[in-house]
Amino acid sequence: MSGLRIVPVADRAGIAAFIAAARRAQSVNPHWIEPVHDEIRMLFNPRRTPFMRENVIQPFVAFRDGEPIGRIVATVDRAHLAKFDDGCGFFGFIDAIDDPDVFAALFAEAEQFLRAQGMRIARGPFSLTINHESGLLVHGFDQPHVVHTNHSPPHYARHVEGLGYVKAMDLVAYVCRVAESDFRTRVARLAASFNAPEIGFHSLSLRNWNRDFPRILSLYNDAWSDNAWATPVGREEARLIARLMLPVCRPSWVRIATFKGEDIAIIAQIPDVNEALRGLDGKLLPFGFARLLWRVHVRGTRMARVPMIGVAKKWRHTKVAVLAYNELLARSIEDARNAGVEEVEISWMLETNHAMLNIMRHLPARHTRTFRVYERAL
User: Fold this and answer.
1) Distance of alpha carbon 319 from its chain centroid, rounded?
2) What is the value of pTM for the model shown?
3) 324 and 360: one domain?
4) Which of 39, 59, 64, 206 is most buried as measured by Cβ atoms within 10 A of its Cβ?
5) Using CA atoms, how far apart are residues 329 and 183, in angstroms rounded to an integer?
6) 222-231 residues labelled b (16+ CB within 10 A) or e (exposed)
7) Boundary (domain end) residue, out of 172, 203, 218
8) Environment class of 13 (CB within 10 Å of its CB; exposed 0-12, middle 13-18, buried 19+)
């Protein structure tokens, strides 16, 4: 451990080292796409990010001989504690070189911080909450690094488990090859097999984006409220997410199902922006942003991702919900086909979500990646 120091991030220089540490750790991973630096800076700026103002968050960077070689973030999520009262703090943004001493030192610092805040359990990785990037890659290391998911070399999981962390839950990703899917035809047969209710479908647009985003927030918070460790997304945080998404998403790929004037289900599909970020090294200036927009909206992406599909609690286990859910997914597959997208990743899903996993078999879609959430008593 000679020359190894763990330093709390407290200023812009610390954030620069935090960004550099990930690049150093991931240099052995050819699939990793460096995230946009400006988004990282914003995320940890309390003036710009509601989550930073409302919770207790401390990033740390590991240095050896002055070089940043690892990082971690400790988080006390007040919304989680208010809902679950379980004394659980989170870790996230874990990146480090292949050295057990570095992982041990980073986790020791994060755990000490969480203990000082009264936490009894450490769980993660969440960057920064379960509503953001969740889990550590443990299967599918040869698969692409898709937008808003994590990607890591195999040594990450090995060292985390070596510190006594055990599986709490697995999250899975499935990929559908668009050319092989006849899901729209299957859904049409399903609708014809019984007296199908009249369900409406509403797509967002640039014009109605701000007006309709509260509907998305309401549906999301309701549909996911019973999921493991789920906490609601606040209005300010949702506005921030909407502002970040708009330049690189296709609004019409966000669709709401309605029945008798009530919003009952939602799906969101987004281009794989990571493809467009390749080679930009996390920098949007001076020309990176223009290249990003051209690659997403003109050239198009080979992959897309469905990060969100859900049904309002009131409508679960009803024929209306089954038809709405399947039709939303079928329409998203057709959106991808019409845009020249070759593959759609549906992620992530809880390993216990058997209903959704059954639908994956009918798309058809194959299991490509697994993300593990770990925990350990403090």
Assistant:
1) 29
2) 0.95
3) yes
4) 59
5) 8
6) bbbeeeebbb
7) 172
8) exposed
